[in-house]
Amino acid sequence: MTEPVGVHRSLILQEVRGLIMAGLLAALAGIVDAIGYLHLGGLFVSYMSGNSTQLAVAIGQGSHNEAGSIAELIAIFVLGAAAGQILSDFSGRWRMTWVLSGVTILLAVAGVLATAVEPMVLAMGALNASMRRAGNIPVSLTFVTGVLVRFGQGLGDFLTRRTTGLNWLVQATPWAGLIAGATLGTVAYGRIGEAAIWFPVILAALLAACSTAIPEPD
Asked: With b meaning 16 or more CB within 10 Å and e meaning fewer, what string describes 79-108?
């Protein structure tokens, strides 16, 4: 039994709307991560895979002070992810709005404290709880390795004719958003320095406001 046309269109609309939001959220993460990377001189506030590699290198080289600083960033990120998950669980169908509101507050605190790193890392950890799927499509926000893997797998299936559709192309949406955001963050930081943090504060607030129009199902 096939789905009614109206239901099918609704699902497609939900996925498209979700992918647009996922791209914008990834752009937000990209802006913050680029600003944090430049501010910290080579460490990340959202890309913990990179920080984990640098932690291992620091340990291997006996740079214990550096290793301690990197480990602290990772621990703060985990706490942010936990806090975001708790907030999401208690927020029901308004989870995106509440999580993004928390992210906005944390980024604003970072701005007031001259691009303080701790609230930026907490915000990026929490951001991951704001969205996990766009309809039936899984999305990643602050890291894109999984996105690129799914994109590559879809490309492989397409080249071997295991699939004929082009739905796999949409997997690149968060990656494109992250790249665009990181580019914008780099340019902004290069021109106005620490004040660039207010750009993601504004974007996070706008996305939180927009999310009120798209509550998720319980």
From this structure: ebbebbbebbeebeebbbbbbbbbbbbbbb
Pick from 95, 121, 98, 93: nearest CA to 35 = 121
Mean pLDDT by 10-residue block, N- to C-terminus, for the chain (218 residues)?
A: 55 73 91 95 91 96 95 96 93 89 97 94 93 66 75 86 74 87 96 96 95 69
3-state secondary structure 34-100: HHHHHHHCCCCCCCHHHHHHHHHHHHHCCCHHHHHHHHHHHHHHHHHHHHHHHHHHHHHHHHHHHHH
3-state secondary structure of 138: strand
Whole-structure pTM value: 0.87
Helix (H, G, I), strand (E, B) or coil at 21: helix
Distance of CA 98 to the CA centre of its chain: 15
**Short-list 108, 105, 107, 99, CA closest to 127:** 99
Distance of CA 37 to the CA centre of its chain: 15
Angle, in degrees to the nearest 10, between helices 5-40 and 198-211: 160
